[in-house]
Design a protein that fits this description.
Keywords: Signal
Order of helices and strands: HEHHEHEHEEHEHEE
CATH class: Alpha Beta
Radius of gyration: 17 Å
CATH superfamily: Spore Coat Polysaccharide Biosynthesis Protein SpsA, Chain A
Protein name: Glycosyl transferase family 2
Strand content: 25-35%
Shape: globular
CATH topology: Spore Coat Polysaccharide Biosynthesis Protein SpsA, Chain A
Organism: Saliniramus fredricksonii
Structural class: alpha/beta
Number of strands: 8
Helix content: 25-40%
Oligomer: single chain
Number of helices: 7
CATH architecture: Alpha-Beta Complex
Distance between the termini: 65 Å
Signal peptide: 1-20
């Protein structure tokens, strides 16, 4: 069990970029509740590109903060401006951190300061070969993306151009987009 001072130092803010519907956002925020209970997640900031009444209701119900950005803007820097902590877990609405993520993120944040604040990258579980290939190629990118654990210092202009990426032994599952309901009544 960590000391109270370490809890305060290692807590992080969740930055959730929501470009999907309210169901995806609700799934991601509810998956973070365990992290809140374990003392790893301190707060959440939802980043949207346009206001939506349904998403606003979810944000209000969960006590999250939110920011509206222009399409194409950097969602992580915008969310970080409202976040209370210096460490962030960056997620897309629909991302579900899988079992074991809390311990893996906690361990990463604990050693990262000594390692020069690398970017921690969680793996994505791919549903098909196209997504698997996209994930593998995306791992090579140095840009901050959903599934990364980032220190505030990596989001400012003084950050290194080619930050070091460290793998984090945890996975994220992307919730599939809801399929439209079909009428199953026989034609005729």
């Amino acid at each position: 069990m960590r000391s109270f001072a370490l809890y305060l130092l290692m807590m992080l803010s969740a930055l959730v970029h929501s470009r999907a519907g309210p169901e995806a956002l609700a799934a991601t925020l509810s998956a973070l509740v365990t992290g809140v209970a374990e003392g790893v997640v301190a707060d959440a900031v939802v980043i949207v590109e346009q206001e939506s009444e349904a998403i606003d209701l979810i944000i209000e119900a969960t006590g999250a903060h939110h920011v509206v950005i222009a399409a194409g803007s950097d969602p992580w820097s915008a969310g970080a401006a409202l976040a209370r902590r210096d460490w962030f877990i960056c997620l897309e609405a629909g991302d579900i951190p899988l079992e074991g993520w809390i311990g893996a993120v906690d361990r990463f944040a604990f050693i990262a300061e000594r390692e020069g604040y690398p970017i921690g990258r969680l793996a994505r579980r791919a549903p098909d070969w196209r997504e698997w290939l996209r994930e593998r190629v995306g791992r090579l990118s140095r840009a901050i993306r959903a599934g990364d654990i980032v220190h505030r210092s990596k989001l400012d202009g003084a950050a290194a151009r080619r930050p070091r990426i460290a793998g984090v032994e945890a996975q994220i599952l992307r919730q599939p987009a809801p399929q439209p309901e079909r009428d199953l009544a026989p034609a005729g």
